[in-house]
Amino acid sequence: xxxxxxxxxxxxxxxxxxxxxxxxxxxxxxxxxxxxxxxxxxxxxxxxxxxxxxxxxxxxxxxxxxxxxxxxxxxxxxxxxxxxxxxxxxxxxxxxxxxxxxxxxxxxxxxxxxxxxxxxxxxxxxxxxxxxxxxxxxxxxxxxxxxxxxxxxxxxxxxxxxxxxxxxxxxxxxxxxxxxxxxxxxxxxxxxxxxxxxxxxxxxxxxxxxxxxxxxxxxxxxxxxxxxxxxxxxxxxxxxxxxxxxxxxxxxxxxxxxxxxxxxxxxxxxxxxxxxxxxxxxxxxxx
Length: 287
Hints:
Elements: E1 12-16, H1 17-28, E2 36-44, E3 47-55, E4 60-61, E5 66-67, H2 70-83, E6 88-95, H3 105-114, E7 121-126, E8 131-138, E9 141-144, E10 148-152, E11 157-158, H4 171-185, H5 190-215, E12 222-225, E13 230-233, E14 239-240, E15 246-247, H6 249-252
Parallel strand pairs: 1-3, 1-10, 6-7
Antiparallel strand pairs: 2-3, 2-6, 4-5, 7-8, 8-9, 10-11, 12-13, 14-15
């Protein structure tokens, strides 16, 4: 008989929401260096259920990677034998503060040498971006799992398949959503919103008028009377056509220009009657 080929299918992973919260809290406790720990659970058919985690104390931290030391393993097995005697180590977790979710060469080395079972996974969480993902064996390759199920013990219901590399939000995400909804209910009154909206529109309109006045000047026509030494502004609508001709609405409509401060026309002076002499003929020449 030929050698049996390993199963190429990705394992089905279910994780408790409380375990997710603990992993995130552990990663956020140190936002500059990586932290690690192991995942506790049991195999279920072609998948596994992650029900707890044990933090890796005394791990060797070097900023961009973390290593399980002998003291770390002694602490892990001590806690496991005491609190989880009937369960097994189904994988490990570590943080990538600001690096994103992936397995580095050092992470791959750890997974191949310490978590080489087909039902062991690697959980990666970035506390800076809140992105997380799970990696597992698919045959002889390590792939990012496309389906993760998050189980909420409080509700007793299992989350459905997400179809995404990272799991859906757990308990902590639900708390954030509820807190944001409560905060959104508190706000300024409706009348204040309307006043601010109207005021902002009027301010924008005023700015537009000022800008138009500054950058789009209008023509103002003045008529100069050299005889009377007066200056009169032309009627509204007066302008100079592109061909250089003066266009005045009053003249175009058949009217006349306004005569402001014009000199009055001279009046004729009637001849004054002469005063008659007493009893003398005016036609008789005087001596």
